[in-house]
Design a protein that fits this description.
Oligomer: single chain
Helix content: 10-25%
Number of strands: 12
CATH superfamily: Acyl-CoA thioesterase, double hotdog domain
Number of helices: 6
CATH architecture: Beta Barrel
Order of helices and strands: HEEHEEEEHHEHEHEEEE
Strand order of the largest sheet: 1-2-4-5-6-3-9-12-11-10-8-7
Radius of gyration: 18 Å
Shape: globular
CATH class: Mainly Beta
């Protein structure tokens, strides 16, 4: 299988001032994987900010399905450069159409009041959980052909979903999920951009589908139409994506053909390193 690395996916070519191009990976979904656009848009925004300024949040909207067979152009607008904060707007473009829009805020690192009112759940350790890739390979014949052909592109991140057998089935469950994740390739801790962009990429894995669980609908249901509408992320502490991180997701509400999910990402010390929110379309159609 092809040896693919997140570092290469997050490395963008400069087309012009504020204009960058990223390659695309086909993960076997109906459209371009949203996490790719999240990570690459963040990497593009970073190219326009001064060293020492770290992204603390971004808010984004997915406007059109992307084509995984084509590269993506990123147009970065400098909105504001202040003494402590700076803001960037990023448009992702394919075939002349804007498919995605992000606003990202960066801050100079400074001391401040600290508290954490979030507790890391007590779950089984990652070493005791089967990797999702092994789960997929064991059920290879049950996968759709595009997914089988794209398995190598799912390998750069070691994702281990607790109780995966039931999580990916049509069994009705509470809308909560626990996922261990880390990058397989070496990511030096001093490479802030790569660690944050890669975590943004991974934050879209198995996220919206958490909203399906109380309805007994499997993500593979041929009558299901599911798509991300918006995605927001906050970075609280430095990210070391070579270490195991626990992604805790839950869905507080679904209705009007939409579901909302929120996520908390903890390191193994129990520190909350990032938070996420996403809303998406969840629609059942008739044959």
């Amino acid at each position: 299988m092809t040896d693919v690395k997140l570092a290469s996916l997050m490395t963008l070519d400069t087309v012009d001032t504020g204009i960058y191009q990223g390659q695309s990976w086909d993960l076997g979904f109906r459209a371009l994987f949203g996490g790719q656009v999240l990570g690459q848009a963040l990497a593009a925004a970073y190219k326009t900010v001064l060293a020492g300024r770290i992204v603390h949040s971004f808010h984004s909207y997915f406007l059109l399905p992307g084509d995984a067979r084509k590269p993506v152009i990123y147009d970065v607008e400098v909105v504001r450069d202040g003494r402590s904060f700076c803001t960037r707007r990023v448009k992702a473009i394919q075939e002349g159409n804007t498919i995605f829009f992000m606003t990202a805020s960066f801050q100079v690192v400074e001391p401040g009041m600290e508290h954490q009112f979030a507790q890391m759940p007590d779950v089984i350790p990652p070493e005791s959980v089967t990797s999702d890739i092994e789960f997929y390979e064991a059920n290879y014949d049950k996968l759709a052909r595009p997914m089988r052909e794209a398995l190598s592109y799912h390998k750069p991140i070691d994702i281990r979903t607790i109780d995966a057998v039931n999580q990916f089935s049509g069994v009705k469950r509470d809308p909560q999920r626990f996922i261990w994740m880390r990058a397989r390739e070496m990511m030096p801790s001093e490479n802030v951009i790569l660690n944050q962009a890669s975590l943004a990429y991974a934050s879209d894995y198995h996220f919206l589908s958490t909203s399906l669980q109380p309805h007994g609908v499997a993500i593979t249901d041929s009558n299901l139409r599911i798509a991300t509408i918006d995605h927001a992320m906050w970075f609280h502490k430095p990210v070391a994506f070579n270490d195991w991180l626990l992604y805790v997701t839950d869905s507080p509400f679904s209705g009007n053909a939409r579901g909302i999910v929120k996520g908390q990402i903890f390191n193994q010390k129990g520190e909350l390193v990032a938070s996420t929110m996403q809303e998406g379309l969840m629609r059942k159609i008739s044959n």
